[in-house]
Amino acid sequence: MGKNTRADTRQDKWDSVRKELQQTLGQNNFVTWIEPLSYGGLSGDVLRFGVPTRFLGDWVSRNFADRILREFEKQGVEAGRIEFSVRRPAQTATATDSAKGAQPKGQTVNGAAVNGRATQGDSDLPTAPLDGRFTFENFVVGKPNELAHAAARRVAEGGTVTFNPLFLYGGVGLGKTHLMHAIAIELSECRPDLRVLYLSAEQFMYRFIQALRDKQMMGFKELFRSVDVLMVDDVQFIAGKDSTQDEFFHTFNALVDQGKQIVISADRAPGEIKDLEERIRSRLQCGLVVDLHPTDYELRLGVLQQKSARFASQYGDIPVAGGVLEFLAHKISTNVRVLEGALTRLYAFASLVGRPIDMDLAQDCLADILRASERRVTVEEIQRKVAEHYNIRLSDLIGPKRVRTIARPRQIAMFLSKELTTRSLPEIGRRFGGRDHTTIIHGVRKVEELRASDPQFAEDVDLLRRLLAR
Ligand code: ADP
Ligand code: MG
Q1: Rounded distance, CA 269 to CA 261, Å?
Q2: For a substitution probing ligand 1, which of 130, 337, 344 has the most ligand atoms within 8 Å of its CB?
Q3: Which atom of ligand 1 is nearest to the CA of 172?
């Protein structure tokens, strides 16, 4: 194959290949992976390219080498393989490189990170602002969140990575963001040597799009691959956003391969996030998946006591009558955020009007929150609980499968939705994968029949009802 010699080092073959690749790989891939390559010609049967970083070379080699070889072949250049060598810094300094302190290339990404930290702290990391109140100290631990808390604590020790990623999920206001901030705060105190990057999935996407637009993908990639701990909050946000998902996936893999810790949060389990690519879903499930359960009475009371101790020092001596916190913990069962909001309002109101915090004040000033908490069970919660109870997937419960083991729990969920919520039958139908209201009626009747004839079944349904209505 050594017959293609000198003539093939001509730039025009490469130019033609590039044009083809631009067509077949798409603009994003092209700009990110192909454009940075500099063609170094053919020697023997080896095509040589210069690359700005080892990472880029590895990536192109793994993903695009065959494609490049094939395109060269079409141009009459037969090569057996491709070799990438890292160009010297002088050739590669780009805007993003200099923003990062122009680390000499050819070093590992890690080395660059260490240097960057020593000289400029972590100021180059686009970490979202941390809320100083979201510490472990301020996090009240109860049954519903104890596993999530323990896992977060473990990550915050910054030791060897034992599970990757840590995937925290749960409904809104249950403390996911609080725990992630707590990890970041703890690490910054105890392990200042680690590069910790916390941001929301939305910010990740924003940065990604910005990097694409400004043609700074290399900088973006290097930045995200240079951290020791990456935390991405509310990852459900990138579902359905294909190129962002793609980028996230690559970042994710690169970090996992380097043994770096990743922490992810979402409002639901990986398996329940719609429009999430299967490969991402399965990677997310590889680590430790922990859910923050809805609060229970003890946790709510604990949170109220802790916050009220803090408010007390903030607002001066406002007495809290016995039973008020218990009343609130009992009544407001949605989430911690609402609980907090209620207490804040209570203190603010009491201090304004100069009244003690007692039941009357609570009733007066929290009427709306208390009323909203009355109809607290949602169809979604019912579905979740029923799926959990029968150990089936939420997606199956809502989906089209007709096997008894799934159809029966589905009918129970329909029945409970009718009983425990104020939703109309068509509304319930919509929440069950767009089913017709007659299907819901049928399900409800079926459950009524079975309850009448099968005591075991009746007991099961009642148990679920009690769990939901509390
Ligand atoms: P999420 O991210 O799950 O929607 P957040 O972490 O933002 O919820 O929590 C909402 C609010 O409730 C925050 O102010 C947070 O400090 C508080 N919070 C949640 N869980 C707890 C807890 N276990 N102890 C103390 N505060 C909590
Ligand atoms: Mg959050």
Answers
A1: 19
A2: 337
A3: 4
What's the CA gap between 246 and 269, in Å, rounded? 19
The pTM (predicted TM-score) of the whole model is 0.60
Q: Does the Cβ of 173 fall within 6 Å of ligand 1?
A: yes
Provide the sign of the torsion angle of the four alpha carbons 417, 418, 421, 427, taken in this order.
Answer: positive
Q: Which of 396, 418, 416, 395 lies closest to 406 in space, CA to CA?
A: 396
**Top-level class of domain 297-372:** mainly alpha
Each residue's pLDDT tens digit in the chain (470 positions)? 444 445 445 678 899 999 999 888 877 678 777 888 888 888 888 899 888 777 678 778 877 888 999 999 998 888 889 998 877 543 333 333 333 333 333 332 223 222 222 222 345 678 888 899 999 999 999 999 999 999 999 999 998 888 899 999 998 899 999 999 999 999 999 999 999 999 999 999 999 999 999 999 999 999 999 999 999 999 999 988 889 999 999 999 999 999 999 999 999 889 888 888 888 888 888 889 999 988 888 999 999 999 998 888 788 778 899 999 999 998 887 789 889 999 999 998 898 888 899 999 999 889 888 877 665 688 999 999 999 999 999 999 999 999 999 999 999 999 999 888 878 899 999 999 999 999 999 999 999 999 999 989 988 898 888 788 65
Cβ–ligand 1 distance for 140 under 6 Å, the answer: yes
User: What number of H helices and E strands is found in the chain?
Assistant: 23, 8
**In CATH, what class is 108-291?**
alpha beta
Q: Which ligand is nearest to the CA of 291?
A: 1
The architecture in CATH of the region 379-469 reads Orthogonal Bundle (1.10)
> What CATH class does 2-88 carry?
alpha beta
Tokens of 55: 């990472």
Q: Which of 192, 191, 288, 211 is nearest to 251 (CA)?
A: 211
Pairwise CA distance, residues 116 & 102, whole Å: 9
139 lines ligand 1 (CB under 6 A): yes
Give the domain ranges of the chain. 2-88, 108-291, 297-372, 379-469
178 within ligand 1 shell (Cβ under 6 A): yes
